Amino acid sequence: xxxxxxxLKPRYKVIADYPMSQxxxxxxxxxxxxxxxxxxxxxxxxxxxxxxxxxxxxxxxYEERDVSEMPEFVQDLVCYKIMKPLHFFTxxxxxxxxxxxxxxxxxxxxxxxxxTEKDFAEYIKNSKK
Length: 129
What we know:
The chain is mainly β. It has helices spanning about 5, 115-125, and strands spanning about 10-15, 30-35, 35-40, 40-45, 55-60, 75, 80-85, 85-90, 100, 105-110, 110-115. Helices cover about 10% and strands about 35% of the residues.
């Protein structure tokens, strides 16, 4: 599992080749700071990356990650519940990167944000009042 702040760092997937490109199509670039991105262990400066949607696709926090990288706690953006999902699965019961379960209910990642153990403990404490 990654640190929550690491999960929320902007990431882009290279979706097309271009002249003098140093990236392979399919590479994932993670924002380090400013206009500095890291991909495949190498640092790059890419100015205004969001202005090139034909070359780079912005990834949601949960996209292109292994289940092992997913957070231990998540917050539902619909009802603001913070939970510790039991497992991640597809409708067929196989591990997936599309959603997780809590008490038998399915939550898609596009309705969740990573949360911390501290957030979870505070949520539990406040819900018992």
